[in-house]
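User: structure tokens for Transferrin receptor protein 2, please.
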Amino acid sequence: MDSSAYSFTAFAGVPAVEFSFTEEDRVYPFLHTKEDTYENLHKTLRGRLPAVAQAVAQLTGQLLIRLSRDHLLPLDFGRYGDVVLRHIGNFNEFSGDLKARGLTLQWVYSARGDYIRAAEKLRKEIYSSEQSDERLMRMYNVRIMRVRSRSLPPPSGRGPVPGPGVLKLRFRCLLGVLYGRSYGVHKPARLEDPTCPFRRLRQVEFYFLSQYVSPADSPFRHIFLGQGDHTLGALLDHLRMLRSDGSKANSSGLGFQESRFRRQLALLTWTLQGAANALSGDVWNIDNNF
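Assistant: Done. Predicted tokens:
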């Protein structure tokens, strides 16, 4: 969150990579000032700027090679089905408590099943396709990237924010620029072309970020790794209140609230179902009966 581009990338859902070189005994006082010049940076690095630039180029080159090696994006889109199952498995112990209140988690199980089926269908389509077909690979990559989430870690999972005594050089690149051939694009793509994957950048890390909370209020919108009322963890914490001291919790307003639970469950289910639908492809190609 200390990145100057964080507000843009978090709100727009643009995938980005940021890496840095740090020195514990050095401080760079010119960041975000008019004094942040080539000369001052070169001086702070004690004449090592060419060597640092070479290291940056080599690391960026490794990223480019990894992202442009294959026609198909190397993303395991099916693993989220196991992640969902691992989370909702913790809900089973509360099934009796929910049933007594006329509630059920069937919606979540149904959405998870739809996602698993969509992932398996896409995997079979890919394996039975000719990977030299660039246009077909591009279509598959678009479907994969629609559901690949932006895994924003919570604040506790981030590295330390640079402070006094730390020199931190940060370099940033948008993955939309790096993916290139991985998207199946071997020539300059026109953004107005509906098949152009860069047109989908806002959807790249879209479907596992809750669309029902504001990025300004809840910057960590990921339903698995985020923080807030929209996450699977928050739903589980709310369920645990069913077995807390009911009278004391209700009097303080911190007990189980059925209306709030229904809202959490509905929004979470819609998010999961949206990811499943995105993985299935265009609506006119889906065989499910509506």
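User: Anything notable?

Assistant: The longest strand covers residues 16-23.
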